[in-house]
Design a protein that fits this description.
Blueprint (H helix, E strand, L loop, with lengths): L3 H15 L5 E3 L1 H6 L3 E7 L10 E7 L10 E5 L29 H13 L10 H7 L17
Antiparallel strand pairs: 1-2, 2-3, 3-4
Keywords: Transferase, Ubl conjugation pathway
Protein name: N-terminal E2 ubiquitin-conjugating enzyme
GO molecular function, one term: ubiquitin conjugating enzyme activity
């Protein structure tokens, strides 16, 4: 019998495969090998500064999912964005402090794609060099300070 996390992940996977979201693609082969490790490709949305670009996210789930958020980071080509560090770590509150079990892989992907779409210039976070030299490999071990972009 599968554990609750695995059942939830299989349900989410089936939903994403039967009702695909625009610009978001699941590596089914990778997920078939290990339900706890997903690779998701995100395309930059049309009429944004990332149009025509593709990026990969790595999702890692533990046995406490969905009560504990997945570890999510960019791998391969890392987008240049003010909330994405050059090591792939993403400063996004729903990945840590604002995570709830009601969220899903699809919701996280939509949030990240929306975050990319709202950018008006490509720049790294101001503390990128210091952060990437001193942080843990696991972005969930970071105590993020979320800036308000409107100020």
């Amino acid at each position: 019998m599968s554990c609750p996390a695995e059942r939830r992940l299989r349900k989410e996977l089936l939903e994403l495969l039967t009702n695909p979201m625009p610009g978001i693609y699941i590596d089914e082969e990778k997920v078939a090998k290990n339900i706890n490790e997903w690779i998701v490709t995100i395309e930059g949305a049309e009429k944004t500064i990332y149009e025509g670009e593709t990026f990969q996210l790595q999702f890692s789930f533990n046995e406490k999912y969905p009560f504990d958020s997945p570890t999510v980071l960019f791998i391969g080509k890392i987008p240049v964005h003010s909330h994405i560090y050059s090591n792939g770590h993403i400063c996004l509150s729903i990945l840590t402090d604002d995570w709830t079990p009601a969220l899903s892989v699809g919701a996280v992907c939509l949030s990240i794609r929306s975050m990319l779409s709202s950018a008006t210039k490509k720049e790294r976070p101001p503390d990128d060099m210091i952060y990437t030299r001193t942080c843990s490999k696991n972005p969930k071990k970071t105590k993020w300070f979320f800036h308000d972009d409107t100020v």
